[in-house]
Amino acid sequence: MRLRMPFGRKPNEFPSHLWTQCPSCNEMLFNKQLARNLNVCTKCEHHFRLGARERIELLVDKGSFHEQDAALTSGDPLGFTDSKPYPERVAAAQTKSGEKDAIITGEATIGDNPVILAVMDFEFMGGSMGAVVGEKITRAAERALAERRALVIVSASGGARMQEGTIALMQMAKILGALARLDQARLPYVSVITDPTTGGVLASYASLGDIIVAEPGALIRFSGERVTSGTVGEKLPTGFGKAEFLLERGFLDQIVPRPQLRERIGFFLTAFRAASQDLRWSL
Amino acid sequence: MLDRITGTKRTVEGNGHLPVDANLITEPAQLVSRVSAWEAVQAARNIQRPHTLDVIGRVFDRFNELHGDRGFRDDPAIVGGIADLDGRPVVIVGEQKGASTEENIARNFGMPHPEGYRKAMRLYRLAEKFHLPLITFIDTPGAYPGPEGEERGQAEAIAQSILLMARLQTPIIVVILGEGGSGGALALGVGDVVLALQNAIYSVISPEGCAAILWRSPAEAERAAKAMRLSGPDLLELGVVDALIPEPPGGAHTDHAATAAAIRTALAAQLAKLERVPAADLMSARYERFRAFGALEEPGVTAPPPAPDSWWRRIVKRAGS
After folding, report:
1. Which of A74, A158, B159, B319 could cross-link A207 (Cys pair, CB 3.0–4.6 Å)?
2. Going from the N-terminus, what domains does chain B have, and what CATH number goes with each?
3. pLDDT the model gives residue B318
4. In chain A, positions 87-146, which contact chain B (CB-CB < 8 Å)?
């Protein structure tokens, strides 16, 4: 006969495929309930990271999203190898995630406003920006310009993809060239910064929106801690570079909790459209 | 079947951004010998290498330095001003390293703070307003990554600089003198023509930083440097730079005067060409130059669109018709 302990947890009481512990308040959260709550802790509202597909679903008007440029995949401009060749790393990430690269783009409406939406996914190689991310965002901006739609980019990225070297760096200039044209055409660009956004993505499109909002608690920093401590030999205090810090320092318009994002973006886009004389953008 | 939209090799002849000049290296084959990636890193960081103010003093006449970002302070890691090149006024902005430890401490080792980039942007706008060509010199390990930079918006300052250069309605020539460290370099690096000294380097992250992340050890920096293809000939093959300016035998640090003379010849020749290009052509050529970067595969999409003519070829065609 098995001895049963009436109190105290059995080791497998919270198997990880069913339960997740909130890193902020230590509450054990039932995975299904967590997902239903948009990956936000039901007790303390800690924002867990969210995949690009789930993110799109919560941001756009129901059923309005149509993906574009879905087939684009990365080449290997440098023939890069660290512990394994770069194409193998990409292939492994593709198998693991079922996505082609770290971003999904397409057209949609948000609060009945026509937009081109680009959403990054941190799960794919740390959301790193290589030529695929660069090309898809550039095409998104060019399409927004051609069809006179607003552009919305949701960032989640460790920065430029080192395995593509200077070609990854050049994506920053490529994207910003397209954003400059969008700006000159007076089309709105909303940047949504989510956890974590650092490096070359923060130092390019994420920091340039007409409106820049971030999710609560998101890590938003130019240089990663490992780079900083390696280069400057200076340890940064904890909590430094969170969304709340950036809001206080004047680099964000607002911090918006995840459930309110769609409505808030819709509000700004509608406001920008109100006085516009342009046909499509005043529809 | 996979169609290659863009090949990995974009020679200068292939991308057509620049006509071949006698005094510039536009094909890696023109180099008699190639140094290793790590040797290039050492050469680019050599403290005796000519730095921005040294080059400005030898290349231009009547340099007048302009200080400050009009908001916070004057960042000593970025210098700028107005000077004459062959009797023609130009605006100059460059990153400044020191030639000694003391100088380097004063210059923050050439690592600009956000206010440095904001000073640069002020000078970019000045160049545009008075139709003066802009010449930038890149020489930085990277933008300063410390907490002061973070809280004053290092990322925002870099992003705005890149955006401004992309839309600036005046000719821009970029010269990479030594180290081109990532976004901190690109903030001065969006030009119509991008040149580099033969032993200069340009990379998305320092070899040490790359090694720390991918190999989890800064000691692997030498391997990282090789893998990142950051040396002059590599950059030429990738199309990141349009041409290399030859250095004296033994390297730029052995003969500052000869190095400056080569830079001067290159700048004068490029400027003479760029000034004949109408502003609209210049803007679309600059857009296309950076638009073309990236090795991609896109199944299901047929033949790649024909590459648009460079501004230079368009000018030649127009002159011929």
Report:
1. B159
2. 28-277 (3.90.226.10)
3. 59
4. 130-132, 134-135, 138
